Amino acid sequence: MKQFLVFTIKTIITIVVLAVILDYCYTAIYLQSNKRNKIEYVYNSTAQNYDVVIVGSSRANNHFVSEMFEQKGLKTFNYGMSGGHLFEADLLLKLMIERKYKIKTVILETDLNLSNDKRSETVAAQFLPYIHHSEIIKKHFSNEADFNQLYYIPFYRYINFDALIGFREVYKTLSEQRTNVLDKAGYHALGNKKGNMKNNIVNLNPLLDNKYYEEIKRICKANNIRFIAVMTPMCENVVGMNYFEKVQKAYPEIHNYENAVMENKYFSSCGHMNDSGARMFTAKIINDFFMNKNKGVGIK
């Protein structure tokens, strides 16, 4: 019995030590990388200067053509992240401010993502390698139900989110394998191949006083950043388009562009425009907010 007890204790100690070592090694690798996703690109960056920063979900990533802003003399990066929620957009903006980014205008894609204040598991996981090195990230996650496990148990986050930040991703990071996420100043163009061209959002409702949306507004105001919140287009086949009217009623400062592009030929799926649609939409945004002084000017 005594031998078994000693063996058990030694095994537990070995596992804990191994977990601490692996946690340290994985984290050290991520702390040196800025080539594979937009979160590590910001986290491991120094001060940047932008005329326009775009944040939001895939409906930002696929809808705002950075190149078209650049052609107007506006230094721009699209930090929209596929699958992202306002939880991650808020945190990413906080990290930019901490790194002393100078930003003149933030464009926030905010429409469907106003319906929740939860984190996106797939995107939020990419912040977790830095949770012990950043008070901002630690605080942002502190109210999450699994915070104690994520923060206090060595290597837990890498096991729990293995598909996102585990061994395979660490290997690709260590071997400096690039992705196309940072190409084209963050804009990801979609083709003409049709995905799901129907969508039902009848039961969707925006949260009143979405805390992450309100925090993004406060950050912009505190840092003298022009804030433009925009609802982006959806295809003709959506059921429940009055959702956008609900958003407008709850947040009258958000500019409604849901019908700025409507024909299905401009969409790759019902919620995402193809490159042609994105260029048409981006042209409207540039004209309305950066060229035409008589139109809306956002919030400052």
Core attributes:
single chain; 300 residues; alpha/beta; two-stranded parallel ribbon; 14 helices; 9 strands; 12% strand
Structure description:
- There is one protein chain.
- The strands form three sheets. The protein has a five-stranded parallel sheet.
- The C terminus is likely disordered.
- It has 14 helices and nine strands.
- With 300 residues, the protein is an alpha/beta fold.
- The protein has one domain.
- 37% of the residues are buried.
Counted beta strands: 9
Please outline the major beta sheet: 5 strands, parallel
**Approximately how much helix is present in the residues?**
40-55%
The number of helical segments is: 14
Strand order of the largest sheet: 2-1-3-5-7
Helix-and-strand structural type: alpha/beta
Q: List the domain count as a whole number.
A: 1
Percentage of residues in DSSP E strands = 5-15%
Concise description?
The chain has helices spanning 2-30, 38-43, 58-61, 66-70, 86-98, 121-124, 135-141, 147-152, 156-160, 162-165, 167-174, 211-222, 243-250, 275-291, and strands at residues 49-55, 76-78, 102-109, 199-200, 226-231, 238-239, 255-256, 267-269, 272-273.
Secondary structure layout plus pairing:
Elements: H1 2-30, H2 38-43, E1 49-55, H3 58-61, H4 66-70, E2 76-78, H5 86-98, E3 102-109, H6 121-124, H7 135-141, H8 147-152, H9 156-160, H10 162-165, H11 167-174, E4 199-200, H12 211-222, E5 226-231, E6 238-239, H13 243-250, E7 255-256, E8 267-269, E9 272-273, H14 275-291
Parallel strand pairs: 1-2, 1-3, 3-5, 4-6, 5-7
Antiparallel strand pairs: 8-9
